[in-house]
């Protein structure tokens, strides 16, 4: 497996935490995507993720999985014993609910600011 990411960004950090919690960090090759330089906007990266966002999980068969929730779910179920996303329908539903609340109420606002305030990410601000 490969993770295309930029260390220090919040969404890639979520995936690194999930990998560490599952003891899988050593099974992943991390591919540095130079986001401030605009590497995520290049055609080569957009073939991996048309949204041009990190992280992206690249599987051995060439499948690309983006979005933290999907990547975390995949990682959590690799060994057949989910511990991060819940093992019962109720646990999975509560986990998904809390994750969505955190994204909608906090992370979306932070990401919007970060996107526009960081050179190379958003449109140039005069």
Question: Quick recap of the structure?
Answer:
The protein is α+β, with helices and mostly antiparallel strands.
Sheet with the most strands: spatial strand order: 2-1-3-4
Task: Compute the number of strand runs.
Answer: 4
The description of the largest β-sheet is: 4 strands, mixed
How much β-strand is present in the residues? Answer: 5-15%
Structural class: alpha+beta
The Cα radius of gyration reads 15 Å
The shape is globular
The helix content is 40-55%
**Termini, distance in Å?**
41 Å
Give the rounded overall mean pLDDT.
88
- Tally of alpha and pi helices: 4
Report the CATH architecture: 3-Layer(aba) Sandwich
What would you give as the CATH superfamily? Glutaredoxin
Number of domains: 1
- Helices and strands, in order, run as EHEHEEHH
Give your account of this protein's structure.
The structure is a single chain. The protein is an alpha+beta fold and 126 residues long. The chain has one domain: Glutaredoxin, CATH 3.40.30.10. Helices cover 45% and strands 11% of the residues. It is built from 4 helices and 4 strands. Strands 2-1-3-4 form a 4-stranded mixed β-sheet, with helices on one face. The N and C termini lie far apart (41 Å).
């Amino acid at each position: 497996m490969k993770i295309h990411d930029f260390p220090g960004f919040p969404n890639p950090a979520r995936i690194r935490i999930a990998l560490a919690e599952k003891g899988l960090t050593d099974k992943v090759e991390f591919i540095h995507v130079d986001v401030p330089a605009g590497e995520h906007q290049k055609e080569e990266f957009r073939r991996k993720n048309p949204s041009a966002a990190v992280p992206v999980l690249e599987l051995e068969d060439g499948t690309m999985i983006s979005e933290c929730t999907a990547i975390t779910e995949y990682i959590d179920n690799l060994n057949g014993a989910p511990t991060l996303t819940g093992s019962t329908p109720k646990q999975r539903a509560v986990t998904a609910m809390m994750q969505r609340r955190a994204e909608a109420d906090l992370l979306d606002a932070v990401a919007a600011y970060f996107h526009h305030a960081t050179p190379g990410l958003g449109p140039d601000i005069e």
